[in-house]
Amino acid sequence: MANLSVNIGGLELQNPVMTASGTFGYGEEFTPFIDINRLGAYIIKGTTLNPRQGNDYPRMVETPAGMLNAVGLQNKGVDYFIEHIYPRIKDYKSHLIVNVSGANVDDYAETARRLHPLDGVKAIEVNISCPNVKEGGMAFGTTTSGAAAVTKAVREAYPGKTLIVKLSPNVTSIADIARAVEAEGADSVSLINTLMGMSIDVEKRRPHLSTVTGGLSGPAVRPVAVRMVWQVAKAVKIPVVGLGGIMNGRDAIEFMLAGARAIEIGTANFVDPAVTMKVIDYMEDYCQRHGISDINEIVGCI
Amino acid sequence: MKQVKDFIIIDNCKIGEAYCKMRLAPADGSILPEMLPGQFVEVAVETPGVLLRRPISINDVDRQANILTLLVRNAGRGTSALIDMKAGERLNLLLPLGNGFSTEAPAGARLILIGGGVGVAPLLYLGKVLKEKGFEPEFLLGARTVADLLSLDDFKAVGKVHVCTEDGSEGVKGFVTAHPCLSEKATRYYCCGPAPMMKAVAKVARQNGVDCEVSLENMMACGLGACLCCVEKTVKGNVCVCTEGPVFNINELTWE
Predict the structure, then answer these.
(1) What whole-number distance in Å separates Cα of residue A41 and Cα of residue A46?
(2) CA distance B103 to chain A (A)
(3) Which of A5, B139, B158, B196 is 20 to 30 Å from B124 by CA-CA measure?
(4) What is the pLDDT of residues A7-28, one digit of tens each?
(5) Is A30 on the interface with B (CB under 8 A)?
(6) Whole-model pTM?
(7) Is domain A6-298 classified as CATH 3.20.20.70?
(8) B48 in reach of chain A (CB within 8 A)
């Protein structure tokens, strides 16, 4: 059987398959359908320093081959996570990665600092790309200086453990942003977060989402994501994690060919809660069919 | 236990242009999982342009025949494709989801099950379960016109049925809240229908001091409490309708 293990900024994953933050809850919601121990890693819901109620309903609308969401980082805050959720989910064989967001640089750094001592948290993914919050989020991810400032502060607060920075596609040059966070010590970049979009109910003459705009995900964004992964993989030396509309194993391999060392599955979890297991199986089968002994061989071969 | 399961369509009867009653059996011949009245399923719709599963409430569970029934209203591309499906075709379901109605009540309790439009769907199974528990459930069913009154005979087989239509083509003319049976004493209302109707019923329940449970149908994606899209404001803050609901006691909600 082919080797599927990959290394993301010092973190060894048993296979390249991770779950995208915000689409997998805390993992527990999916235990009736999958064996979490088989995942490369599971990235859980965006966590902030203070609790957040998120945006008003309606937060979601289906769009052609995708969906728009405007959840707005609803979560109970990092302290609640550490006390109540972490103990329940820390002992899986696959790696737990916490997605971190904030309204300002200090919030990001403080959240990372509080997560740092937890042995069961193997890495953090810093979200500088959420389009659905008024302050912070994407504001940091759309300029090289903002992205660099968050990365620098979190790097200092989170030394010696794997730091992934999740990038926004809502920029003119994602490769420039990727270089900026690499220069400040990010161990890896993941991309893409959702594309900012909008949809209107023409009968009611009002937007479908309470926030007017939202983040587009699903197969509709995949070609954009593949292109950006390809560009970023050529621009940086750190490993790239690819995501954006991966619905099956074929799509996952496409991202790896474009330059992703690992991948995240997001919206597809809503359609088929067992999709992650099928993608891992597909990768094994793909390697066998193509005579590949190590999946790392195909990374960035385009 | 929640599961993803293939079903075979036993039959799919159109009711007028906009509705269908679909009877399903597990494709592998296995026994239907435990399902509570008020719970729902998420149906994968294999049609171009549809990505997400569609949440549909459980209309009936026939344990003896091992058949699950769904009542579907054409609300767009996904449900329209379901209405067009034929006997023998396969459907993939995620089930059972949500919490369900409470079926405990004092002996002799007067329980009124109030449905509007396709919102009548979960009340049939609820009525059957309540009847099995020794209650005499009554139904108050509302619709725009007589043609939108769904499966009346099914309800009549379970309990007394009161009817309201907005145009007066059947039963009392007007909204369900205008029906005289709501001015009589009752123990609990169970309500499922359009949001304005449920809010009106909740108001009547408060006025009459009657316990009231409503079933919400907020737009949702995963059905598992992961995406946080279907939230409803409650006294505990925003909660997922798919896991903490779809049934809420009106005291948990922040409705005026």
Answers:
(1) 15
(2) 26
(3) B196
(4) 999 999 999 999 999 999 999 9
(5) yes
(6) 0.96
(7) yes
(8) no
